[in-house]
Amino acid sequence: MIEIKNLIKTFGRGQAEVKALDGVSLEIEKGEFVGIMGPSGSGKTTLLHLLGLLDDPSSGTIRIDGIDVCRLTDWERTMFRLYKLGYVFQDYALVPELTVKENICLPAMLRRDREEKEYTAATRDILHSIGLWERRDHLQSELSGGQQQRVAIARAIVNTPDILFADEPCANLDTENSRMVLELFRKINRERGQTIVMVSHEDWHTEYFDRVVRLKDGKLVNGAAQAAAEPKAAALKENAMGNPLNYSGMGIGIEADGS
Amino acid sequence: MAQKELKVAFFLAWRSLVRGNRSSVLLNILIIGMVFTNMMFFPSLMAGIGVDIKDQIVSYQTSNIMIGPASGEQYITDIETTLAKINRLPGVERATPHYQTGATLQSRGRLIPATIGAIQPREEQYVSPLHTTMIAGSYLGESDVGEAIIGVSLAGSPNIREEDEVRPSLGGVRVGDSIQVEYPNGVEKEYRLKGIFQTGNFEMDNRMIVSWEDMQDVVGEPLTFAPYITVRVKPGYSESFVKNEILRYGVREQVQTTDDLLNKEIGRVMASFSIIGFISMIVSLVIAVVVLFIVVMVKTINNRRQIGILKAIGVEQSVIMNSYGFQVVLLSIAGILVGFLFTGLIVLYMTYYPMVTPEFSATPYVTPLDLAVNGIILFLASVISGYLPAWKVSRENIRQVLQA
Description:
Chain A is α/β, with parallel strands linked by helices. Chain A contains 6 helices and 10 strands. The two termini of chain A are about 20 Å apart.
């Protein structure tokens, strides 16, 4: 599903140049719950940003479902993120002026292939499944940290993305809430066959991951391929996944080679 | 941009305004409202002064059309025939002659020069509202002889010492007082003051008015001539139409509409007023653009991370930009409406308490067209100044704005 080859990302120039990622190659299969771990400054978030099309690599290739995403235009990348990817941020990143329900359905409102009825129903189902239906009309300021992160997760999955990225989603939570969030991720992963790539620096989180990819100084230390981890994807139903790059309703078509 | 994207942009904008920082929203609306008021106030006051001056001149000096003697002549002769001819023309309400001369007035121990005008009191009522401006005593009768009415400034006040007066007056004469008048032809005559008028027109309020019949006594012959005739135009007729009619029917005297006269006399003043008003409007507009630019810039900079998040979750740059654009649009509309209200209140206040000077009494002159034009200009300026920073921030690299 995700295939990274010799990914390099540098910041700055000349003597101030820093190599955040130094030749990382990695494969992630459909349905995997992959944890990216490593010490501070090891390049975890940079890798996640590159995988999530939030930044461009200095060199190397990223192929998602066979598409070279580095060759997409800005607008195609935006559409790719909207239709294929979901994000959960460390600080929840909810829109403070929107209610829980509005925050969740915001990405779905923009999809041209979804009617209001559909995303309203999807939002309702997700709210029930994360246990926040009763708080659907509350604002972010009226929620606890754990609740906010659950809303952020709900927002990330409302469009049934192919891949869910999470950047240290438990960093601001206590253990109890962290466990609740991780349980939610596990539930989504198992019930929906959701591919999840999560950055974490807590060792105890590894018990939730199918595979751990460790980085150090921008280099991959271990976990480059699924072979090293417990195989799981095969056990997941293929039809639980999103269709490979079906841009129906977007008015564009991207071929598997990215052209 | 599809309807769906615009809908989401508006949704985000509305929520941000309604559920965001209310004091900031109200402050922005107030700023735009004050800017609009500022844009309207000074130019409208200038226009109001212009309108008032014109109104005064039309009411008390020239009426709609003034007919002067033909070139090389001192008077319009045979006014009976001329008036009869003019009064028959379509669009003419009434034409009436005017005579004026300088004289020396003496009363209460004061001796001052003044202009004395002669009118046909009955006819004058159709041409000028002078008869409605009496503040003491009564208006002249057609055959009043030895009686006069004077302007409030010329009458003066008993409470102001002679040396303190800006323009000499008769020191507070009252109705019934007698005024000694010495005309340039040597005629001396005593008048009983019949009434005092207050027109608000500087020239008029410093005049003494007598009847046509009285002036005939002074001149010593029937007044069949006059230095000028004023013509009131019926409602619904244009001055230029009536002027052309007068010329077409063979009146050979100099015929000038108010606009002809104003262009000569106060055209430059009015042009200066327009320039001052225009400069004031431009300054206000620049202030509005700068303020809104800063407001939206600060807002977008504060929301940089949120903009990054929105982009990260797949919200298009144009949706983000339009959401800020819609906010500015809504703020501008609300601000302009508040500006309408402020302007209306100021106009209402100044209608009851106008700015009074010896030369004019001004109330802001605002037309629906002025409101619409200024509203549209401010709206466009606001939208542009609001969109620019939103466009700038929304096209930044996601990683950079996420780290903001």
